[in-house]
Design goal:
Blueprint: H1 9-34, H2 39-62, H3 65-84, H4 89-115
Helix pairs in contact: 1-2
């Protein structure tokens, strides 16, 4: 979507979240009517996904465009690696997750200090 449509990455992420939510409701309703829904699994998914979406949506608004694009590309790459099920792909995913956590840990204080207004010096 980033290549085909001239949208900002934050808009694409928001559109993806909206489409995923719509698909979730339609598929969930179909499975519920068919009677093959594991309500315990649904509860845990909702419990984890709602805060995850709310927190991630706030991050996407504050992240620079280039960083968000690189993050989206990394998620797609890692998803492809997991789908192809290469040998030791789990190790690569854990290593990538560690790198992402370390990057966010380093980015947080830098972003906070960059947003602080600097005190003006009195001449």
């Amino acid at each position: 979507m980033l290549i085909v449509f001239p949208l900002r990455a934050a808009k694409v992420v928001g559109a993806d979240i909206f489409h995923a939510a719509a698909l979730l409701w339609v598929a969930g309703a179909g499975h519920f009517l068919a009677g093959n829904v594991d309500l315990d699994a649904v509860g845990w998914l909702v419990l984890g996904s709602v805060p995850g979406v709310l927190i991630a949506s706030q991050f996407t608004l504050r992240m620079p465009e280039r960083t968000l694009r690189v993050g989206l590309a990394a998620v797609l790459l890692l998803s492809g690696i997991k789908l192809l099920d290469f040998p030791h792909s789990d190790v690569a995913l854990v290593a990538a997750a560690a790198v992402v956590v370390a990057a966010f840990a380093a980015w947080g204080p830098v972003a906070r200090t960059a947003r602080r207004p600097r005190p003006e010096t009195v001449a």
